[in-house]
Amino acid sequence: MRCGIVFIVSCVYICFILSHVEGVEAGDQPSECWDEIPFPGKCGFHGNKKCFKEMLSKNQTQRFLRCICNNWEPLNSRKEEHVCRCQRANPNNCTLP
């Protein structure tokens, strides 16, 4: 009887330790990664879709979850530009400046 109780308690203890280790490893998820690239012209009515297509044509190897388009006028320039800011689908290979 005593051996059975010791065995059950040790199994519960081992399961507790293993579940704690898995929880610690799962907590190391990388944060979001965003790419930001300027393009010529204005955003237009469907600016976010336009940015998505432009970013895909520029980065053939990257996949993006969503894009945000912002009109931007550089200082000392009359050119119209827009900045595409897109979130990468895989943040693991993100290189932050």
Brief overview, please?
With about 100 residues, the chain is an alpha+beta fold.
Describe this structure as you would to a colleague.
Its main location: secreted. It is found in: Secreted. Pfam families: SCRL. This protein is of the alpha+beta class. It folds into 2 domains: 30 residues; 59 residues. Helices cover 38% and strands 25% of the residues. It has 2 helices and 3 strands. It has a 3-stranded antiparallel β-sheet with strand order 1-3-2, covered by helices on one side. Strand 2 and strand 3 form a beta hairpin. It is rod-shaped, with a radius of gyration of 25 Å. The relative contact order is 0.20. The model has no long low-confidence stretch (mean pLDDT 78).
Cα end-to-end separation: 63 Å
Can you tell me the residue ranges where pLDDT is under 50 for at least 5 consecutive residues? none
What is the number of independent domains?
A: 2
Order of helices and strands: HEHEE
Q: What is the overall pLDDT average?
A: 78
Rg over alpha carbons: 25 Å
Strand content: 15-25%
Oligomer: single chain
Q: Looking at the structure, what is the overall shape?
A: rod-shaped
Sheet having the most strands: 3 strands, antiparallel
Total beta-strand segments: 3
Order of the strands making up the biggest sheet? 1-3-2
- Share of helical residues: 25-40%
Structural class, please?
Answer: alpha+beta
How many helices does DSSP assign? 2
Summarize the SSE layout with pairings.
Blueprint: H1 2-26, E1 34-40, H2 47-58, E2 64-72, E3 81-88
Antiparallel strand pairs: 1-3, 2-3
